[in-house]
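Repro:
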Amino acid sequence: MNEVKHDNLLKNLSLFHQYLKKYIVQEKLEKYIKKFPTFSEVYASYRSDSVKDDTSIIVTKTLVHGVEEGLITEYDLDELLFLIFEDSLFNSHLYKLTSSSFDYINSDFAKSLFKSWRIPTEHRILNNINKEISKDFVICGYRVEDNLEGLESVRLLLLDSTPLEFYYKNEGNKDAIFPTIVEIDFRRKLLHIRLKDVDNIADANEKRSTMSGRIANTLNFISSFNPKIQFEEIKNFKSSLYHLEEHLLSQKRDLAYSKLEDFNKEIDIFTDKVSKKFNPPSSNEITPKEYISTGVLSIIATTLSGNDIGDVVGIRFRDTQNEKKYAEITIKDTGNMCISTSNLYWLNLSVLQSTKSVEFLKIIPQLDNGSAIVNLEFSLETANVKLHQRTHLEGTDGIRPSQEKYDDVINYLMQFIK
């Protein structure tokens, strides 16, 4: 490799610095690429020469060294990046596929479909950087999931056609490439738009620097495909979140209520004493007994075992269907204890059950591929699913999210998405 090509590869690869973590790269090389067994040793050598350099810089130098020495190829780097994106882009907006023309797709039809959509047959990520095109995105490859009956889903990798400037508090601004995964999920009849957060993008253009702008721009891009991908927003997701909350907590509430019955006599006596001493107004919507009972219920909830307490650790809902004039109820910062341990939950339970509408849930479900911390929100008029990158909390397995875990979460939600 000559010096110009070396410098160009180093520059292009460094544009993905947000994703080049040593342990992630090493895992993908060992488990999937199955090349470059000396990666860790070469990394250590570069690290000893550049103690203060950021990890991503050392990883980049190590990977370029691997290409120079014939230990991996540039195509391997493209595959490596694709794998990392699949295990990193977990802020997902979901839409329903409405077209029935793609219900069953065999391999031959899939090939003609991809050709019509101008999808490249191979992952070509690094070669597409700064490629002169007229559109905002360049398609850099795809991943197919299929079975004997045909195509189940296709994940398209899009890159912004030009780098973005990102702001870092202690490091100033850095250029980076922003990837997006668009999954056309025929099996579950969903369209997934998967991104990272956009908080530190310095670009003034809202269609590149805001979540709403990015989602709209991505949908506009794929709407140009022919044959067209027909989709619609999941407008009833707030109702779906309510049914999910009921699924997770209704039995837990019943258990707490059954334990509360043991204290009915004491609660009645205490309520009578409080009412006689303070003479609270009778016009209050919540009676003194209800206030005292909810306090006892929240205490009972803290004593339940992990299996009995529930998996909902955050919630937001409104006390009226009128969205222009409302009181918002939010329970969060619970230390990842179930919201049933909060007195605020029990006090507002009747409101929740009357509106049957939830705008935000934070849950910690136990899945086939381990536990996950998941934010579920009605956002941009559709369903938004966000997997937390770190799960080092009591009651979780400490494993980072993955493509497999993301699929587990979506499968789990499908019973509530109507």
